[in-house]
Amino acid sequence: MLPKPSKVSRVITVLSGGVGAARLLGALSMVMEPSEITAVVNVGDDLVLHGLTICPDLDTITYTLAGLNNDKLSWGLRGESWRVMDALEDLGGEAWFRLGDRDLATHLYRTQRLAEGATKSDVARELCEHWGVAVRLLPVTNDEVATMFDTEVGRLSFQEYFVRHRHGIEVSAISFDGAERAVAAPEVLDALRTCSRIVIAPSNPLISIEPILQVPGIRAILEDRHADVVAVSPIIAGAAVKGPADRLLAELGHDVSCVGVAHYYRGLIGTLVIDQADAELATAVRERGINVHVTTTIMSSPENARRLGEAVLS
Amino acid sequence: MLPKPSKVSRVITVLSGGVGAARLLGALSMVMEPSEITAVVNVGDDLVLHGLTICPDLDTITYTLAGLNNDKLSWGLRGESWRVMDALEDLGGEAWFRLGDRDLATHLYRTQRLAEGATKSDVARELCEHWGVAVRLLPVTNDEVATMFDTEVGRLSFQEYFVRHRHGIEVSAISFDGAERAVAAPEVLDALRTCSRIVIAPSNPLISIEPILQVPGIRAILEDRHADVVAVSPIIAGAAVKGPADRLLAELGHDVSCVGVAHYYRGLIGTLVIDQADAELATAVRERGINVHVTTTIMSSPENARRLGEAVLS
Q1: Fewer CB within 10 Å, N- or C-terminus of chain B?
Q2: How many Cα atoms are found within 13 Å in the side-chain-facing hemisphere of A129?
Q3: Scanning every residue of chain A, which has its alpha carbon at the shortest distance from the alpha carbon of B85?
């Protein structure tokens, strides 16, 4: 039994990718009013497959905050079944991107609503209302931004790289098709301008946070407010907790450490939260003019998550 | 145990809607080589829902000929489950058009293939190959044709009228958006020109056969070859075996009988197959210059189906 959370009442905005952000948003919800948290969510991973518009980061966060996430897979819904995918595979269809039956309902719902003229913002709000998620989820833009990878086997979309090739091939460059023409979705710039603190979730800097920063207007706000920006390092002891952040940082010439993360976010953040395992790197981060908060950043238990939430708000 | 079919070797082409056509094609497959049967299939009921391209008539025929059809529902697949629809309904999504989990795989497959540049013709062939259906299924066109209903509640698409309103509202006119600009799909005109016999399935003349006839080139071939065209009346004893054919014929001023069907197809057919229940109407049909074949047209048993198949070929 955890002690009753001491709710801190202040409005924050969190730049968010998928799993790492979902967990941080959950941690923050333990120590403040969820309704005072806004997540500005990456859409660079979004894809259209089988005609369905799929927003993996929005869905991962929604499912996680609704308590419906599949912890075992770290994506999709718990208690999921695979009737459609099994039948599609049997037909010889594109079944490499596994969509569970209940998860498919989300994509059918979104796609139908988009066809009716709704935006991704509308759908995110509707799904959160449906599942009682109080955190406000804002896709960073309702325009198309596609994170693309130049690899040893050619130019790949996010999901081709990430899921089909299991991020196991070398990347020489990353780009964000459509980003420079994208318009920030309603409420996004306002949420970033008016919150008391901006948080960069421990998501992949190169492929989850960067496509958010690329949407015109957003980087400038962070530069302007960098003293109010706190990032949580996704690199602990030289490795990513999950996913290819470590590999990609190395392939693209960055230092694979919280110092490399600090360098990547230079000019954008005032504080970096790093893990105890990296305590000896605090000085190197401070030398870059960035404050450091050392704590346990792996959200492996509710107690750890709560501690990280408090560190981010402190 | 049925006697071994006496296969009649001649090539025929069947203008086909959904369930009635599927059953007739099954009946014909009992008395001739299935590979010598071509079905030219209505696409006026096709719809895009949840971003998925759905071809109800093509799918009904494919599932039926593959022996996978759900007889109880008279649409979809047998042994079907409803995980996705139940979840979609729970989300408040558009769940009035029930799509089973396995059926959804067909629509995902088709939609993905169309996105890759395939045509409905290609997909129909691929699905038939997958399920071992030897009858050749040709969508009448790969262009969009939409059967539309002017009703007491406004202009409705086919599925809005048929499924959402369960064809229970009054219709004042039917039109076929896009038909006059549609181009017959590959092999369609050739199949109609070169077959030894053209059959019009006992599908709804107004909404299943008419959108086929509206595709430029098709009506002219039937007029030219009317002596070789055999239709099976979908009206028996003044009623449709299934669906709203009787109601629609009446609402649009046609005689609700096999004589009305003969009149509707005047100039296009040389022979009408009518049910024994309508034997006394044979003379009235013949007076319109159309030959009559009287038999049992309800395919309620394999024996009846076989007899109808033989009647159509005789």
Answers
A1: N
A2: 8
A3: A105
| Structural domain includes residue B247 | yes
CATH number, domain containing residue A42: 3.40.50.10680
Distance CA A88, CA A106 (A): 18
Residues of B in contact with A127 (CB under 8 A): 91
Q: Which of B50, B90, B112 sits opposite A112 (nearest CB)?
A: B50
Find the mean pLDDT for residues A131-136: 97
| Predicted pLDDT of residue A71 | 81
Can you list the residues of chain B whose pLDDT is less than 50? Answer: 1, 5-9
Burial of B281 (0-12, 13-18, 19+ CB in 10 A): buried
What is the number of structural domains in chain B?
Answer: 1
Q: If residue B41 lies in a helix (H) or strand (E), which one and from where to where? A: strand B37-41
Does residue A280 lie within any of the structural domains? yes
Q: What is the pLDDT of residues A198-238, one digit of tens each?
A: 999 999 999 999 999 999 999 999 999 999 999 999 999 99
Asked if B91 and A102 come within 8 Å (Cβ–Cβ), the reply is no
Instruction: Residue A97: list chain B partners with CB under 8 A.
Output: none
Q: Is ipTM strictly over 0.95?
A: no
In a domain, A30, yes or no: yes
- What are the two backbone dihedrals, phi and then psi, of residue A42, each rounded to the nearest 5 degrees? -60, 135
pLDDT score at B9: 46
Percentage of chain A lying above the pLDDT 90 cut: 86
pLDDT, position B164: 86
Residue A104 has its nearest CB partner, among B49, B84, B112, at B84
In a domain, A299, yes or no: yes
Question: How crowded is residue A282: how many other Cβ atoms within 10 Å of its Cβ?
Answer: 18
